[in-house]
Amino acid sequence: MPEWAYVALIAAALFGLHALRRAFWLFALLTLPGTLAHETCHLVLGLLLRAQPSGFTVVPRREGRGWAMGSVSFARIRWYNAFFVGVAPLLLLPAAYGLLRWRLGAHPGIGWPEALAIFAIANLVYASVPSWQDLRIAARSPIGWLLLAGGLAWGWHTLRQPRPLRPAGRVQASMGAAIMRDTRSPNASRLNGF
């Protein structure tokens, strides 16, 4: 299966997961592995950064007009850990990418193992998106705002720099190497009469 087809199937699976939100309990069941991974990222970073996790659940519950698929509560969210705990699910993106590269390296065919891998990758990507509550927690930290400002400044600086034109010397040197290679070949010596 070509890479573009594999990525297209992952995109279709993501679209399918999103479309299933109307059938809530089926959606909750199909996204349970991703929900578990999402909340586990919060839990692990909360433990590592001493945010003192005090509750963990992946059981969906009604919150206002919507649903919370799971949650982790913390007793000690501070300025230095709020950003990292809030955006912890973004760590699922490298995991999804690694799984994708691994499956593509195995020259995937069509079958149940690939369907399961596509489902797992789509679930990881879907679960990697921080919720609004996660972003509200992350926004309490000046670290996040500083990283955002630094990223925007770097992007602005990078985009504003004029792109240098390719120097003429490189092109000539490349052509010279190609000519040298041609004249050293046995066919070139016969053509030149030597």
Which properties best describe this structure?
mainly alpha; flat; two-stranded antiparallel sheet; 194 residues; disordered C terminus; 65% helix; 4 strands
| Cα-based radius of gyration, to the nearest Å | 26 Å
Shape: flat
Strand order of the largest sheet: 1-4
Task: Name the average pLDDT.
Answer: 82
Number of strands: 4
Let me know the largest β-sheet: 2 strands, antiparallel
Low-pLDDT segments, ≥5 res: 171-194
Structural class category:
mainly alpha
Number of helices: 10
Please give the domain count.
1
What distance lies between the first and last C-alpha atoms, to the nearest angstrom?
Answer: 51 Å
Beta-strand content estimate: 5-15%
Instruction: Give, in order, the helices and strands.
Output: HHHEEEEHHHHHHH
Percentage of residues assigned to helices = 55-70%
What would you note in describing this structure?
This protein has one domain (3-141). It is 65% helix and 8% strand. It has 10 helices and 4 strands. The protein has helices spanning 3-19, 24-30, 32-48, 82-86, 92-105, 112-127, 132-138, 142-160, 168-184, 186-192; strands at residues 53-57, 61-63, 66-68, 71-74. A two-stranded antiparallel sheet has the order 1-4. Helix 1 packs across helix 6 (112-127) and helix 5 (92-105) runs antiparallel to helix 6 (112-127). The longest helix has 19 residues, at 142-160. The model is unreliable at 171-194 (pLDDT under 50).
